[in-house]
Amino acid sequence: MDNYTSFEQIEKDLKRYKLERDIAWEELKLMKNEYKEDLKPMNWVSTAIKITSKYSFIALLRKWIFK
């Protein structure tokens, strides 16, 4: 625990803690928006298309190589 010798030190720490809290709150809001964006159905579709195309390409290569 800090030992304060003046009210200025207390006010300085309180201001710093408030700023840290505000920064943490903004980071939480940003994370919430990122998760909302990730959960949109259009993102799921694009991910599914990427995975399907990757495995389809691999399947075609196997068929072509092991013919």
Describe, in plain words, how this protein is organized in 3D:
This protein is mostly helical and 67 residues long. It is built from 2 helices and no strands. It has helices at 7-38, 41-65. The chain is rod-shaped.
Topology:
Blueprint: H1 7-38, H2 41-65
Q: Report the portion of residues in β strands.
A: under 5%
Q: How many alpha or pi helices?
A: 2
Determine Rg (CA atoms, Å).
26 Å
DSSP strand count: 0
Low-confidence parts lasting 5 or more residues at pLDDT below 50? none
**Backbone structural class:** mainly alpha
Succession of helices and strands? HH
- Give a short account of the largest sheet: none
| Separation of the first and last Cα atoms | 74 Å
Q: Roughly what is the average pLDDT, rounded to an integer?
A: 87
Percentage of residues in helical conformation: over 70%
What overall geometry do the principal axes of the alpha carbons give? rod-shaped
List keywords for this structure.
single chain, 67 residues, mainly alpha, 2 helices, 0% strand, rod-shaped
